[in-house]
Design brief:
Radius of gyration: 36 Å
Distance between the termini: 132 Å
Number of strands: 13
Amino acid sequence: MNAMIPALLCVGLLSACQRVEPTATDAAPQPAPPASATNATPAAAPALSAIPASLAPFGNGYPTAGSPCLRLGESEATLQWLDDSADLVGCPDAASAAALGGKVVATIEGATVVSVPRAVPPASQPVEGTTDALVPGTAFHATTSLPCSADGGRTMATCEAGVIRAQAPDQFTTVEITRPDGRKRVISFRATTAIGADGSQADGASGYTFKATRSSDNTIIDYGPEHYVITDALIVGG
């Protein structure tokens, strides 16, 4: 009996000291990290379609600054739709083109091309709310001669010009200038602020930089080597 006591004590000590390792199923569950920290993928911003350079876009939005559509100038791609009685406009999608209320004429390189008629009153009739009238036989509210140059102002000449004044807040005033060589240049204004010219690849102006500065009651336009001085009186009347 006494001989069995040491053996029993050893068995008891071994049982007391044995370490039981928890199994994977017994481990306490760990809180899952927030979904935003692991699996969430930020939504990509929608890509905006650009108006291709082949359409000679200009300005900073049509019909108002910041709008997605742009006026189009003269190029091989647009020449067939250019019209003195309408603005040719390029929009990044059909929805923005439809909002202009014009006639969609083509889709080119993903851009929707739309012709938007200008609000020109009947010939020789006063413009509603003003004493402005069209010059008989023309689409212009006024015509004039203005200083111009083809070499940055070093050699000045005289160019004939006509203006179609905006008839609503969302329209532009356009000044069409006939240069001494017979070619035309159209400058667009918002009130008395010049916003762009209708340069194109066809006339070599697609790479020109447009700059407008104010001097007293005149706007001085430098468009590449072209230089024009346009008075406020022509733009707004008076």
